[in-house]
User: Which sequence fits this backbone?
């Protein structure tokens, strides 16, 4: 175990080293995907890679600050931090700057700043604080409601700014709450809703209803202590109603581009010319990113050698599609390594969280792992065409100061909390 | 258990991602080469195609520029179709049809939209091409034939088809490739090697500079010039002589095997198959099922060789020791066997070999042939020995020359007759037509010319070939290695003397040329066709083979004139004129030339298609036409 006994340096270095590897490797890929022209000046601060270098430099200061602050501070001031963060989100409605249809940025001078990237850490602190409170029992319904409100406020504010991707990330807290004792019924509910929606869209409400009914009644007749017969009947009715209403939701609530993405993902459209058209127009990015990854082959084309990266075939490649650069230039070996690093980082955080003696630290650690996992799953899943397009950054990798700092803060608060573990007797 | 939900979810997702990566990058990864990478634009630089010269250095084939409008459908932006169509001189329907075809071929790859623009159209279009995104002009090199001769020899080039593109990745859509003749045979030498530039594209398909600073770019290698063995003047002269006749002429230089002329009549102007009119003209030629101008009679047509084949039987008889030059046979206006008789014309009898040859006596050769076959215990065995001798002259199988078309001809063997009649159910007399070059024997003009070359050389030949030299390269060693026949050298002299006497006092006595010692042999071959399913005899083919001079021969020639009747009538005259033209450069027998140029066989060829009864041979009359004027100084266009 790498744990320096000196109090000031008793941080978990495994986590820190993985963090540094990811940031460093991420930057190389930003260089490759944002570099234009013949000559390459790593310190050209007008270019994304140059700017990212500044962001990374500033991150070091940020880390020093976070680690210098007393661990107790984060727990004690979590509510304040949460409220300030929420206010910064509300402020967007007045001072926000619209970029690509989402009003998620503050513009100060030439710099932009995205408060939603920081709201994740704030919400994680608030949840940790509230759930770890001795008065709170997550198994009780009123406390569940209060917990959900803490999560839903930022999620809702972000959704209103038209940033659906970042909203979905708040679903990550489900893992946290489940770990802390959220009743089983919620997991069942989440899985049912997801499967009913997908089944209903793919195979139609009738077949979905029949399958749902069969499963519900089989379960009922197999269970040892049987509740009254009305329970499965009511559940069945709800399931049927849901499978019927999914189409209404799909047709009327979702925006056209969201519908197209889902339609392509579930192969709902049958007309091949229409599919080709959709692929070309909506899924152009995905098509190109998949091709870029594919063309990397086993060994990759090498740093700065990717023709699709050099040719800027994948739009936004240095932000949300950064993983396609890894795919093309570093091949199967490099891409797998990145995935393994992420998995190791998340499992490390998860492992440390389980070791925490204070419930606050444990919940926070869990939240960190969950949030990183959601970003990881959605971003890489999207870039490889496994899930519908949802635009969120890859932690530590994607270009952008707010994103990098948001994740750094998120992770390093936990590293600080973890380093304080021995004092928590 | 609750703490493991996220743990296992993370591991599961990690594994799913790695599997997906494996699928994308290892399982279905495209071949990692620049040619298939559509982020890299490949710009080809076409080299000059090699020129073709004749044996004396006369330029026969050169190049001319041509411009094609190419399209890459994916890159096409909205455009003023009507204006564009007007520029290209096509209608809108054709535009839409071609565009659809191009899209169907591939949205990403260049497709020939309009081929072979004229220079004037190109000049106008070039200025405005920028307006039409996705279209560009590709310069190509077409062939230019300096003289309108030798279409069957020179061949032509045309666009590659998909089958070739698939087989050889060197060729891309719209590339030109040799389709026939020497263009096909020497494609690799003539075409050179394309140069290529790799250019990095961005996603808007704009070029953003050379890929890796042009590290992988190559310069075009120009095609090599070749010299072919054809004598252009002789070829041009022969084509003139063969006007209004169907048939083939092959002349070979016996000491090298080089083909001096290769004429198939009727022929066509090779320039008619260049450029925009190519497909139209080609269809026209291809569909002419009577004259068949695209059918190379000199290489493909198998005719019964007739009397010239007799000299082979004389050679085999001497070699097998079954006959001496002094042995005499009687001829009673033919040769009787059983209750059948092989007819012959009037001449002194009995006669020995020399007269047998120059009088072309059927009876004499029937006797010799029987002696050859019956020397052995069974006709099967005898037949095989005979076959071995005959095939050693290059008959009965593909010769192996450097043109891609040919026919094997046919020389029967013991097995052949076993199959025909049943094992041991045939006798020598069943095959007696072989004695006089009829029956089951068939040969192409080039095989016959090669046979004559072997006789002229007294026992060996070089595989006939059309290539004389390739710039900076050796020609195939096969063409410089002599192939020996099974006949000993000394057995040739009496036969050569016999052939010499054909001109002296025999069937071609009227064709003598002063100062040139020509050895020849006439031939007349019966032939049949089917009219409405009925086997019908047509006027005999006129055949003649010859070589000259008698000693140290310079030219061996075989001439077939379809339905020309007896050997010295058409073929003999033509062969004689060709020899005189080649050896002395001038024509003293202008009477022969005038006769040939003023007599046509066209109406003879129409007879079977006329639907009316017709008479042949003795019963047919010759058509006289206005003779073409031949200017012997300007058989070829003047050198610029």
Assistant:
């Amino acid at each position: 175990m790498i744990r320096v006994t000196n109090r000031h340096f008793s941080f978990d270095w495994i986590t820190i080293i993985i963090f540094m590897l990811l940031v460093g490797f991420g930057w190389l890929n930003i260089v490759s995907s944002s570099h234009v022209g013949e000559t390459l000046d790593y310190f050209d601060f007008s270019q994304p890679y140059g700017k990212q270098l500044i962001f990374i430099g500033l991150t070091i200061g940020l880390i020093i600050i976070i680690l210098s602050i007393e661990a107790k501070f984060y727990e004690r001031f979590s509510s304040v931090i949460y409220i300030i963060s929420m206010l910064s989100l509300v402020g967007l409605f007045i001072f926000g700057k619209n970029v690509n249809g989402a009003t998620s940025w503050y513009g100060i001078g030439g710099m932009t700043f995205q408060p939603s990237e920081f709201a994740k850490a704030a919400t994680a602190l608030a949840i940790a604080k509230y759930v770890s409170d001795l008065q709170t029992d997550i198994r009780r319904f009123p406390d569940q409601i209060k917990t959900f409100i803490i999560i839903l406020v930022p999620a809702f504010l972000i959704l209103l700014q038209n940033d659906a991707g970042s909203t979905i990330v708040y679903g990550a807290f489900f893992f946290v709450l489940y770990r802390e004792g959220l009743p089983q019924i919620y997991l069942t509910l989440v899985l049912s809703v997801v499967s009913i929606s997908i089944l209903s869209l793919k195979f139609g409400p009738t077949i979905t209803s029949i399958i749902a009914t069969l499963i519900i009644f089989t379960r009922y007749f197999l269970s040892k202590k049987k509740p009254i017969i009305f329970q499965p009947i009511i559940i069945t009715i709800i399931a049927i109603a849901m499978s019927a209403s999914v189409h209404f939701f799909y047709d009327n609530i979702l925006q056209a581009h969201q519908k197209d993405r889902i339609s392509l993902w579930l192969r709902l459209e049958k007309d091949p010319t229409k599919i080709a058209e959709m692929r070309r127009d909506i899924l152009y990015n995905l098509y190109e990113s998949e091709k870029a990854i594919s063309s990397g082959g086993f060994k990759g084309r090498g740093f700065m050698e990717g023709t699709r990266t050099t040719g800027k075939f994948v739009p936004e490649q240095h932000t949300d599609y950064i993983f396609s650069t890894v795919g093309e230039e570093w091949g199967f070996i490099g891409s797998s390594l990145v995935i393994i690093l992420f998995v190791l980082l998340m499992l490390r955080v998860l492992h440390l969280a389980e070791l925490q003696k204070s419930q606050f630290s444990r919940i926070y650690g869990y939240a960190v792992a969950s949030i990183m996992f959601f970003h990881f799953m959605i971003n890489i899943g999207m870039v490889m065409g496994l899930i519908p397009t949802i635009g969120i950054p890859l932690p530590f990798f994607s270009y952008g100061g707010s994103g990098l700092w948001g994740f750094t803060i998120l992770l390093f608060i936990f590293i600080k909390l973890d380093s304080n573990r021995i004092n928590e007797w | 258990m609750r703490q493991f939900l996220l743990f296992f979810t993370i591991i599961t997702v990690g594994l799913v991602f790695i599997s997906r990566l494996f699928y994308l990058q290892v399982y279905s990864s495209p071949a990692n080469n620049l040619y298939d990478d559509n982020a890299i634009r490949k710009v080809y630089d076409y080299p000059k195609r090699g020129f073709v010269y004749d044996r004396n250095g006369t330029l026969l084939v050169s190049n001319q520029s041509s411009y094609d409008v190419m399209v890459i459908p994916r890159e096409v932006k909205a455009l003023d179709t009507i204006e564009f169509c007007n520029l290209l001189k096509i209608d809108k329907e054709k535009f839409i049809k071609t565009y659809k075809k191009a899209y169907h071929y591939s949205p990403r790859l260049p497709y020939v939209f309009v081929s072979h623009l004229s220079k004037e159209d190109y000049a106008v279009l070039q200025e405005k091409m920028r307006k039409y995104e996705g279209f560009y002009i590709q310069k190509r090199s077409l062939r230019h034939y300096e003289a309108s001769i030798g279409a069957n020899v020179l061949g032509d080039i045309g666009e590659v088809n998909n089958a070739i593109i698939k087989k050889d990745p060197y060729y891309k859509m719209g590339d030109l490739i040799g389709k026939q003749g020497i263009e096909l045979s020497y494609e690799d030498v003539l075409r050179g090697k394309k140069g290529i530039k790799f250019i990095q594209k961005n996603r808007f398909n704009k070029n953003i500079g050379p890929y890796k600073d042009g590290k992988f770019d190559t310069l075009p290698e120009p095609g090599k010039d070749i010299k072919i063995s054809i004598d252009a003047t002789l070829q041009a002269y022969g084509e003139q002589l063969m006007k209004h006749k169907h048939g083939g002429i092959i002349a070979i230089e016996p000491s090298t095997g080089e083909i001096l002329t290769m004429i198939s009549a009727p022929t066509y102007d090779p320039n008619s198959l260049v450029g925009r009119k190519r497909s139209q003209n080609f269809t026209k030629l291809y569909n002419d099922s009577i004259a068949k101008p695209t059918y190379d009679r000199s290489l493909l047509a198998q005719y019964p060789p007739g009397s010239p084949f007799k000299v082979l039987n004389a050679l085999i008889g001497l070699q097998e020791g079954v006959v001496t030059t002094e042995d005499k046979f009687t001829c009673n206006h033919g040769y009787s066997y059983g209750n059948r008789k092989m007819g012959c014309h009037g001449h002194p009898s009995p006669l020995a070999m020399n007269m047998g040859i120059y009088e072309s006596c059927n009876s004499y050769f029937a006797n010799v042939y029987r002696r050859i076959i019956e020397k052995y215990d069974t006709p099967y065995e005898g037949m095989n020995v005979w076959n071995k001798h005959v095939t050693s002259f290059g008959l009965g199988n593909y010769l192996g020359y450097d043109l891609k078309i040919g026919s094997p001809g046919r020389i029967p063997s013991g097995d052949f007759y076993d199959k025909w009649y049943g094992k041991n159910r045939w006798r020598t007399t069943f095959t007696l037509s072989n004695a006089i070059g009829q029956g089951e024997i068939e040969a192409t003009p080039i095989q016959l010319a090669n046979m004559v070359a072997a006789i002229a050389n007294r026992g060996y030949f070089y595989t006939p070939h059309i290539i004389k030299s390739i710039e900076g390269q050796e020609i195939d060693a096969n063409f410089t290695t002599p192939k020996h026949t099974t006949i000993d050298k000394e057995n040739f002299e009496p036969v050569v003397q016999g052939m010499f006497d054909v001109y002296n006092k025999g069937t071609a006595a009227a064709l003598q040329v002063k100062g040139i010692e020509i050895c020849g042999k006439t031939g007349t071959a019966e032939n049949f066709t089917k009219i409405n399913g009925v086997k019908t005899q047509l006027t005999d083919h006129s055949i003649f083979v010859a070589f000259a001079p008698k000693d140290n021969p310079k030219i061996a020639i075989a001439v077939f004139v379809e339905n020309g009747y007896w050997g010295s009538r058409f073929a003999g005259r033509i062969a004689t004129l060709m020899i005189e033209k080649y050896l002395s450069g001038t024509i003293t027998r202008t009477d022969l030339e005038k006769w040939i140029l003023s007599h046509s066989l066209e109406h003879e060829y129409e007879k079977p298609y006329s639907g009316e009864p017709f008479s042949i041979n003795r019963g047919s009359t010759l058509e006289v036409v206005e003779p073409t004027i031949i200017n012997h100084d300007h058989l070829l266009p003047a050198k610029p």
